[in-house]
């Protein structure tokens, strides 16, 4: 008799993890606290409830990172994708689902599986020691008692209850004819080279127009249960800073000191926006100190007023939400085990990914890893060129920890092409010419997804764990 694996949380990640474990032939006990205890966002007792939108986003596996993730999950026998496909509603190029039909189907499939036991009730502390393999998938609204227990293992600084997200920009969309690399006062610091930041200069006129736009911009409201969101020091939204005084930003994240614009070395910029490398691949840069609650449409418009960012493409826009998530790059090993207590694995949004699909994807891989370990199979790492591998790599190590003061730098992120290793050879047109503009962008995306499919196929052919049957 194989000892069961315990999964805590029957959301997107936990449901997928439990399914994968059972498909591998390992018994699993899925602990879901609803309806015994609710959360501030869930409304039903169904497993895999979608708490807000009913969209799994783009289903384009050729040119969209989340579409590729859908495809990879399908090829690994994902329950969430199978039931999402079965309960699809019309939504153009996106995969949107009938939320009740989807959740009921996931619940029924798990309840009908002889290897799955669904236990309703809160796990209100550290799992008992005889639970030798546990997946914690309790999501952004993890119950306070369990969150406290996790905190006792991680330390206060490594488990966040809110995210304060600064926008993240694709490096290649920054105009380096305007912006330049330089660290403030050319400081080398530990691990730097004196040219670690990208700087975008503003003259007085541009700064004043930017402040006006920030103040006028449409902001998102907190939900009632988020109203106590702490604006902790070093983490104020930029529009709140702008409202406190027109010069506040110039003395804060936009201070123009210790930097020289190589295009205009004799004139000191009135203000400077800095961007800092966000991932080891160097493809993503985050806007330092630019956490914001501006609505997405206005946010992109206002940020593109910054010289050098006129054509910026955002891997993620800023936000501030109630969220429970770990400083995973520091705390988790490459197979998502807590280094301080390896019998605990983490999955879903609590690992610092973002979104229904990404949460389910991490649940899928965590379930397979836990089952492989239970069966004595090696836990094969996924190639970082796949969407699943890129996401796991980001969570477990791809993000670069920074030494700056202020909020912790690891922030939740959707899957995006910035997490993939760049292509070794730039794609060319059929007649061998260099591509430009949208044709170049599309060809790159196609080449990245082709590479991912090829690498996943090789991995699957060598994997000891089968692509689970549907
Ligand atoms: C208000 C809100 C709106 C969102 N809107 C969107 C959106 O529109 N699109 C999108 O892609 N993502 C959205 N998200 C993010 C979304 O929550 C996650 O992407 C996804 O649901 C996370 O999956 P998960 O499995 O990690 O957590 P969840 O799906 O939240 O599942 C966690 C489960 O764990 C249970 N649980 C918690 N603590 C315990 C415990 N101690 N014992 C037992 N069970 C426990 C909960 O009841 C829950 O069922 C939203 C999040 C929030 C909070």
TrEMBL record:
<comment type="similarity">
    <text>Belongs to the MnmG family. TrmFO subfamily.</text>
</comment>
<keyword id="KW-0285">Flavoprotein</keyword>
<dbReference type="InterPro" id="IPR036188">
    <property type="entry name" value="FAD/NAD-bd_sf"/>
</dbReference>
<feature type="binding site">
    <location>
        <begin position="9"/>
        <end position="14"/>
    </location>
    <ligand>
        <name>FAD</name>
    </ligand>
</feature>
<dbReference type="GO" id="GO:0050660">
    <property type="term" value="F:flavin adenine dinucleotide binding"/>
</dbReference>
<dbReference type="GO" id="GO:0030488">
    <property type="term" value="P:tRNA methylation"/>
</dbReference>
<feature type="domain" description="MnmG N-terminal">
    <location>
        <begin position="5"/>
        <end position="376"/>
    </location>
</feature>
<keyword id="KW-0808">Transferase</keyword>
<keyword id="KW-0521">NADP</keyword>
<comment type="function">
    <text>NAD-binding protein involved in the addition of a carboxymethylaminomethyl (cmnm) group at the wobble position (U34) of certain tRNAs, forming tRNA-cmnm(5)s(2)U34.</text>
</comment>
<dbReference type="InterPro" id="IPR020595">
    <property type="entry name" value="MnmG-rel_CS"/>
</dbReference>
<keyword id="KW-0274">FAD</keyword>
<comment type="function">
    <text>Catalyzes the folate-dependent formation of 5-methyl-uridine at position 54 (M-5-U54) in all tRNAs.</text>
</comment>
<dbReference type="InterPro" id="IPR004417">
    <property type="entry name" value="TrmFO"/>
</dbReference>
<protein>
    <recommendedName>
        <fullName>Methylenetetrahydrofolate--tRNA-(uracil-5-)-methyltransferase TrmFO</fullName>
        <ecNumber>2.1.1.74</ecNumber>
    </recommendedName>
</protein>
<dbReference type="InterPro" id="IPR002218">
    <property type="entry name" value="MnmG-rel"/>
</dbReference>
<keyword id="KW-0819">tRNA processing</keyword>
<dbReference type="GO" id="GO:0005829">
    <property type="term" value="C:cytosol"/>
</dbReference>
<dbReference type="InterPro" id="IPR040131">
    <property type="entry name" value="MnmG_N"/>
</dbReference>
<dbReference type="GO" id="GO:0047151">
    <property type="term" value="F:tRNA (uracil(54)-C5)-methyltransferase activity, 5,10-methylenetetrahydrofolate-dependent"/>
</dbReference>
<dbReference type="GO" id="GO:0002098">
    <property type="term" value="P:tRNA wobble uridine modification"/>
</dbReference>
<dbReference type="Pfam" id="PF01134">
    <property type="entry name" value="GIDA"/>
</dbReference>
<keyword id="KW-0963">Cytoplasm</keyword>
<keyword id="KW-0520">NAD</keyword>
<keyword id="KW-0489">Methyltransferase</keyword>
